Amino acid sequence: MSRITTVEPATANPEQKALFDAIASQLGMVPNFLKVFANSPAALRAFLGLHGIAGEGALEPRTRERIALALAEQNSCQYCLSAHTAIGRKAGLDAAEIDANRAGTSRDAKAAAAVTFARALVEHKGEVTTAELLAVRNAGYDDGEIVEIITHVGMNLLTNILGKASRVEIDFPKVELKQAA
User: Fold this and answer.
1) Is residue 4 part of a domain?
2) Helix, strand counts (H, E) of the chain
3) Which of 33, 119, 125, 139 might form a disulfide with 113, Cβ 3.0–4.6 angstroms?
4) Burial class (CB in 10 A: 0-12, 13-18, 19+), 28
5) What CATH number does the domain containing 97 carry?
6) How many structural domains does the chain have?
């Protein structure tokens, strides 16, 4: 049971209902973590805005999902791991790639550099080394894409923290974490 209320459509106020309708029109559902966010419509709007704009960037959807999977495992967020396993499959990631991502890498060399860099950002709280920055640049990412990787790390940290703090009920096929929480 979630430690922070999940706002249900039946009890949502008009602003929450409008946000839920917009989410459902795009996803076909309103995931529970967004129902937690809806306790503050301003926070939900902020997240949806950042998510939408970040999705317009140059990073390909599969690499965004690879980063999300790596960070969900690294940060022990079972909700996010379960959600991004389902989303990653829809984006075209197979089981072997998802396993590689959860381990902090990828079978695609360029994507592996992005995933490794994303995990280093979290591990070092942003204080990455020049070598780590050069590795992602040498893999073919320009400064704009590096900033996008950083943006996706921040966004995933936000959802990992919300998922863990709230202990929101998982409403995707449940995936077990490989590491202890």
Assistant:
1) no
2) 9, 0
3) 139
4) exposed
5) 1.20.1290.10
6) 2
> Do residues 84 and 149 both lie within one domain?
yes
d(CA 30, CA 25): 9
User: Of 140, 156, 142, nearest to 54 (Cα)?
Assistant: 156
Burial of 163 (0-12, 13-18, 19+ CB in 10 A): buried
Structure token pair of residue 104: 């902090």
pLDDT in tens, 4-50: 999 999 999 999 999 999 999 999 999 999 999 999 999 999 999 99
Q: Do residues 79 and 36 make contact, with C-beta atoms less than 8 angstroms apart?
A: no
173, amino acid identity? P
The pLDDT of 127-134, averaged and rounded, is 98
CB 44 within 8 Å of CB 147? no
For residues 20 and 37, the answer to whether their CB atoms sit within 8 Å is: no
Q: Which of 84, 54, 53, 55 is nearest to 67 (CA)?
A: 84
**Range(s) of the domain holding residue 36:** 9-54
